[in-house]
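We modelled the chain as a single entity of 483 amino acids. Its sequence is:
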Amino acid sequence: MKTLDRYILKSFLIPFLATFFIILFVLVMQALWLAFDNFAGKGISVGIILKFLWYTTLIVAPQALPIGVLLSSIMTLGSLSENYEFAAAKSAGVSLQRMVRPIVFLAIFLSGINFLFLNYVYPYAMLKQLNMKVNIKKKQPAIALVAGGFNTEIPNFQIKFKEKYGEEDNLLKEVMIYDLSSKKGNNKIITAKKGEILSEDGSRYMTLILKDGYYFEHHEKVGMPFKEREKMAASYADFEKYTINIDISSFNDDDIDDLKYTKNFNMLSLKQLNDTLPTLKRDYDAFVSSRAKNLFLSIDIEDLHQYPDSLINKELSLNILDNFDLKEKRNILSIATSKLERTINNNNSNKETLKNKRKYLNLYDIEFYNRVAFSLSCLLLFFIGAPLGSIIRKGGMGMPMILAICIYVLYFFSNTFGRNLAEESSLTAIFGSWLSVFLMLPLAITLTVRATKDKGLFDVNSFFAPIQNFVKNLFSKKEKNAT
């Protein structure tokens, strides 16, 4: 390696390592802050929190790497231009392409590292962290309860409440509980204005104290006919305080590191995604095909056959309804309307199921293409940051930091926007995953060409020159006509 290459690499690596670890720290702290409510005051050990942070570090590292490359390339090239080192190199016959060649190879190497991280380390970290979150919730049932919908994680109970609050996040508002312990369905319903969850570490019971509520239970026997069920008596009472002890011993048997969820789209490598996608697509196509068959059967559609003219009854009207009297017409239209309404209702009820199945398939498809597209972000952002740094001729953390943030926000927004559109089937999975690359590639090419030709970021003169020439020619023509 030549002395110039070593010097350029050293000038790039020092700011790169500094910015990479700073950005990584910021992203990890952001993730910890978002998950802080699930850890604070819940009796979770420091070891589990550190393990959670380690998995978070592995997850956000592929995001921090492109930002570090972008920022350090702007800083390095900007500093070399600001100190006239590029000018000295050019006077010695060394071109810009020759100077940045070692950094280009390094950017390609970092893109390869990012790909390996996304393909192997990232799925492993997502697998471990998601299962850890689930197991922590099982160790602390109060964490598992979420406001707004029915919580079914606790055995034999379905619990719904409007809000969870308090210092320990264990106080509930507007509670509704379905007690399913009798195995007879939703026959026992308890509602309360307020509730409180009490549970100790290692205890096999969670105590739920309800205040100012109502209790309803419909009494019936297993196997009782429906008509007799309606005649059975029901218990109804109000209460000021009601205590329920819920057995959660099955939760405590699970270990924090148990792996129960292993097939999520972000837990699989590219090879595993490639093996899983055909199965998912076959299941989706089979579901669509079955719904289409049910649609044809429900409206009694039959195949049309062409008959010879000799078999056609000339006395029948081509308008089918004209062959029936008024009463029969009403019956036909009534049956057709009811079948049509029933079919529309069935389609509406299955619309959400179809949408969710398509969305589920899209998530796997998008993840497959996005792994490759995002791994190239190091190389793409380098070819934006390096020429931009040589054009603005500013080193340090001021202007380069602002430009790097703006560029990466644009890249990240376009990547997220494309993935969301592909998730909703507005775009294909491959186009949605590569949308950010398609949008940013022209910018990278433009900046690289301008930096190679030693042009500024915006050439104002080249913009106004045609206008000035047009005005001069216009006035010169007027002067000639006047003479």
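As a brief sanity check on the tokenised model: The radius of gyration is 34 Å. Confidence is low (pLDDT under 50) at residues 460-464.
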